[in-house]
């Protein structure tokens, strides 16, 4: 009990150091508890959600297929259950915009892709519709309300029978835009009212457990030779499923790597601290041995310090994770995915690994540092350790240099090289902290750059999308237009080897100067008539180089899955909405007609822009009108989704840096007690002694920063690769300004630590410090 009281007294005497160490541990516990809880809940919930609502393993598309044909396909080996449905696109005209709806018929005995009912009931007769609850919320629809939609020049009226969410649309699009994109379901009885006759155009397949989906797809295609077969999509290639799987994988990796790095930093600092603490109290160890205290009890007494640090730090980290991390990721998940009734809570079991891991290195350092002292006799342990012998430095042997160095700098150099190992170990904490600062600030800067690039790439004022079948020859343009260019967009598949990736191919005039293209060095690129511009994101993922031949398959039904080989003209940096770009002349070389579907418009002035927009809004050929603000939504969405993680990361990096630098500086002062006491006895002024310590810490920080800079580049590149995908490119260049800010912040934290440690220099006991074996 007395030893425990002594432990509490020791903590009280160095409370700032204890708090600094606890904060270092808290940072690791914060990320471990938060990321681990979030990752585990996301994985377990999504797996249960997919299983409960039986997400289809394979969707196969036809121009039309009858019930009997669907029944015939059910005999194909590997199919557990098969269901047919009719799918079509519709639009809803609202006040200032149009919204698109993807509408499916619901099989009578629906067992695949079953909806999650939020309110109301499943449509059971003609004229009823089951509406996506998020879309309904955006437009203030309730059960029982009427909704008017338009499809293929038909106006249809439905009564909302219920609100739902569906497992196949847990993520609709990159920005989860529920305002202009929705999903709905109708009863099978409604199909004849939409199309002449009753037939399906899509089948959903639930495969037998463990059966190879690719083989099943080939079998279905082979059995569909007599049918108007179009295409098929496996579960793994659907947008929502692939996105959430990638998110779960990334979160799982982050929950292991980030806390491990942070715990290793805290382990190094704890190791150094406990080694210093036991060395500084060798006199007390000798007294305890003389009083008959067992070696085991002395060792357990000192082991209590890192255990208390681990417990306090882990509790603080977990509480902060529960109060800050979990609410933020809950809000982020709600914006990113539609997962009904999912709730995130902190798993308090994550407290145990945090305590064990953070305490383990402290216990190890206590054992390694204490076993040597405990082997000594009590009388020997009560005497201070003899000072180390100092050999001549290399610089001392160079004639004319050493004599010109001031006495203060000689002391600094001697101290650093006297404790080379500890100086190197001390710098590790600062190195890693600086790397975290640069990486966190750099990644945040990259996300901001993505949002800002839109201004450089897209210089048009309006994008006008025309209705299907509209001929560009019949269109009229208003006055007040400075520039205008037609474009056409094709849904395609990029194919390489056995891999397929959904993509977008944009066809526009070679002279179009309302869309700018840049290479990875920010040099302007131009379209040519003999090749395709490939997005950098696809080039990175599939190792595409200039001059390569790539395969593109047109997936629009009217093009009947036509595949073509295109020559890579250039690689284009596209941070948002990456697309393949070609000219109409290059498209026609593949015997595909160019039928423009959109018009990019640049107005003469802001005043003209209003009148130009009014003209297009009244044009009955126009389907939708969008401006650059719509393009910004995707980039701003990503920035908003990821900002909180990196802001927390930056704050934690600052806390970690302060804890590391303060603890290391404190150790440095202890190890120089005798030297500093000697200087005080010789009449050295207090501010000169403080300046001596300050310059030494600045030298160590400078060394750490120099080492951290190249490491930061490597770590930053790894994080960029982890965040990037074929549908999203992240800038992979560190900003000089960001690196400068991080370096300045590291030095400011060093200065702050030195200011807080000034009182330790003042309290040095000159008589006790100068006692030694000579």
UniProtKB/TrEMBL annotation:
Domain of life of the organism encoding this protein: Bacteria
Q: ABC3 transporter permease C-terminal domain spans which residues?
A: 257-375, 647-765
Q: How does it sit in the membrane?
A: Multi-pass membrane protein
Give me the segments passing through the membrane: 15-35, 257-278, 299-326, 346-368, 423-442, 644-671, 692-716, 736-757
Q: Name one Pfam family in it.
A: FtsX
Q: Coiled-coil stretches, from where to where? A: none
Keyword annotations from UniProtKB, A to Z: Cell membrane, Membrane, Transmembrane, Transmembrane helix
Q: What subcellular compartments does it reside in?
A: Cell membrane
Its recorded name reads: ABC transporter permease
Q: Which organism is it from?
A: Paenibacillus profundus
């Amino acid at each position: 009990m007395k030893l425990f009281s002594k432990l509490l007294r020791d903590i009280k005497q160095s409370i700032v150091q204890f708090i600094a160490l606890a904060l270092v541990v808290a940072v690791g516990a914060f990320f471990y508890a938060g990321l681990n809880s979030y990752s585990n809940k996301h994985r377990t919930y999504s797996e249960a959600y997919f299983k409960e609502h039986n997400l289809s393993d394979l969707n196969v598309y036809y121009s039309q297929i009858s019930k009997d044909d669907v029944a015939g396909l059910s005999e194909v080996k590997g199919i557990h259950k098969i269901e047919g449905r009719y799918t079509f696109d519709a639009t809803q005209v609202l006040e200032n915009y149009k919204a698109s709806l993807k509408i499916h018929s619901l099989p009578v005995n629906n067992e695949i892709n079953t909806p999650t009912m939020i309110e109301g009931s499943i449509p059971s007769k003609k004229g009823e519709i089951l509406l996506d609850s998020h879309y309904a919320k955006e437009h203030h629809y309730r059960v029982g309300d009427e909704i008017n939609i338009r499809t293929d020049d038909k106006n249809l009226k439905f009564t909302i029978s219920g609100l739902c969410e569906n497992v196949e649309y847990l993520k609709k699009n990159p920005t989860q835009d529920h305002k202009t994109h929705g999903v709905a379901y109708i009863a099978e009885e409604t199909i004849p009212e939409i199309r002449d006759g009753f037939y399906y155009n899509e089948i959903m397949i639930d495969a037998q457990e463990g059966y190879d989906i690719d083989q099943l797809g080939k079998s279905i295609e082979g059995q569909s030779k007599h049918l108007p077969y179009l295409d098929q999509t496996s579960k793994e290639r659907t947008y929502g499923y692939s996105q959430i799987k990638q998110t779960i994988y990334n979160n799982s990796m982050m929950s292991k790597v980030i806390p491990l790095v942070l715990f290793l930093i805290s382990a190094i600092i704890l190791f150094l601290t406990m080694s210093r603490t036991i060395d500084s109290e060798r006199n007390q160890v000798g007294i305890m041995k003389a009083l008959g205290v067992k070696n085991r009890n002395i060792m357990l007494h000192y082991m209590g310090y890192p255990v208390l640090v681990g417990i306090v730090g882990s509790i603080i980290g977990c509480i902060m994770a529960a109060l800050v991390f979990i609410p933020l990721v809950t809000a982020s998940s709600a914006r990113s995915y539609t997962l009904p009734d999912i709730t995130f809570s902190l798993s308090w079991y994550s407290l145990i690994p945090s305590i064990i891991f953070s305490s383990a290195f402290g216990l190890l350092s206590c054992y390694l540092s204490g076993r040597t002292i405990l082997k000594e006799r009590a009388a020997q342990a009560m005497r201070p350790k003899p000072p180390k012998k100092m050999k001549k430095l290399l610089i001392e042997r160079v004639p004319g240099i050493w004599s010109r160095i001031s006495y203060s700098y000689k002391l600094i150099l001697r101290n650093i090289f006297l404790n080379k190992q500890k100086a190197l170990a001390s710098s590790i904490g600062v190195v890693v902290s600086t790397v975290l600062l640069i990486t966190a600030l750099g990644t945040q800067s990259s996300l901001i750059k993505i949002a800002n690039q839109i201004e450089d790439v897209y210089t048009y004022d309006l994008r006008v999308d025309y209705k299907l079948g509209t001929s560009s020859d019949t269109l009229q343009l208003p006055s007040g237009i400075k520039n205008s260019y037609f474009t056409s967009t094709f849904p395609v598949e990029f194919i390489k080897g056995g891999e397929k990736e959904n993509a977008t191919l944009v066809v526009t005039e070679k002279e179009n100067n309302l869309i700018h293209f840049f290479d990875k060095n920010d040099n302007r690129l131009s379209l040519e008539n003999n090749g395709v511009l490939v997005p950098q994101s696809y080039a990175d993922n599939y190792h595409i180089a200039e001059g390569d031949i790539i395969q593109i398959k047109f997936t629009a039904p009217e093009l009947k899955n036509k595949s073509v080989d295109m020559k890579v003209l250039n690689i284009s940096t596209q941070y948002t909405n990456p697309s393949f770009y070609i000219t109409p002349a290059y498209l026609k070389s593949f015997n595909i007609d160019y039928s423009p579907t959109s018009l990019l418009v640049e107005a003469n002035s802001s005043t003209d822009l209003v009148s130009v927009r009014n003209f297009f809004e009244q044009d009955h050929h126009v389907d939708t009108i969008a401006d650059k603000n719509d393009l910004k939504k995707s980039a701003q969405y990503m920035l908003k989704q990821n900002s909180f993680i990196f802001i927390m990361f930056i704050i934690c990096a600052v806390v970690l840096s302060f804890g590391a630098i303060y603890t290391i500086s404190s150790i440095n002062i202890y190890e120089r007690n005798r030297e500093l006491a000697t200087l005080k006895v010789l009449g050295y002024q207090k501010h000169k002694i403080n300046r001596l310590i300050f310059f030494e810490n600045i030298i160590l920080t400078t060394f750490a920063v120099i080492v951290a800079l190249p490491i930061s580049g490597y770590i930053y590149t790894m994080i960029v690769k982890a965040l990037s995908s074929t549908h999203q490119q992240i800038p992979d260049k560190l900003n000089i300004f960001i690196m400068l800010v991080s370096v300045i912040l590291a030095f400011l934290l060093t200065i702050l630590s030195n200011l807080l440690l000034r009182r330790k220099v003042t309290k040095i006991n000159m008589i006790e410090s100068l006692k030694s074996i000579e």
